[in-house]
Amino acid sequence: MKSYTVHERPKPLADRIDRAADLVFIKDGFNFLAFIAAPVWMIVNRLWMVLFIYLVIMAALLLATDALGIAPGIRSALTLGLSALVGFEADSLRRWTLARRGWSLVGSVTGESLDVCQRRFFESWLPTVPAVATENFAGFESDPLGGKPGARPQMREPVVAQQKGRGFGRWRTAEGKS
Predict the structure, then answer these.
(1) Residue 105: beta bridge partners?
(2) What pLDDT, in 10s, does the model give residues 8-31?
(3) What confidence tier does 58 reach under pLDDT thresholds 50, 70, 90?
């Protein structure tokens, strides 16, 4: 069984389908790429603060082992231990970074695969979310006409094609812009 936590951006979009497309699922468990190449994994996931802290700890570890004259085998074991710690805590580091950026934890879900987990989550989450929020969300200005006198709101139509294999469609304006 795999376990995922689900996170939502600080100012979610007004339309629930757009909100669903912006949700981030983070898996619990060991991250092999973070273990093998921690700095590369941190750069790919845009974990800048985590990367800075990792580099400071690694530099301090290497300087301390040099200053104390510790054998190269022990030095390698210490760096391997730090890499293993990053591998085990990689998903927690991503959650911490999202929380620092204002993302909120929406829920958690378990299942056999990511697809099953997403289906389970959306089956319980979508009925609780209004189709279009009436509050002032990031994707919905307080004045839907943009302050232009005589302007008409743009009509939206569903797009049949799926986006990034997530299993739900996106919406586009009549002009074809999303």
Answers:
(1) 7
(2) 999 887 777 888 888 999 999 999
(3) very high
35/41 Cα distance (integer angstroms): 9
Environment class of 24 (CB within 10 Å of its CB; exposed 0-12, middle 13-18, buried 19+): middle
Phi and psi, residue 134, nearest 5°: -95, -10
CA triple 92-94-98, angle to 5 deg: 115
Amino acid at site 66:
D
Q: Which amino acid is at 149?
A: P
SS3 assignment, position 111: strand
Residue 18 φ then ψ, to 5°: -65, -40
Q: Which residues contact 124 (CB under 8 A, 6 or more apart)?
A: 107
Q: What is the C-alpha separation between 101 and 148, in angstroms, rounded?
A: 33
pLDDT tens for 97-151 read 999 999 999 999 999 999 999 999 988 888 887 777 655 444 444 444 454 554 4
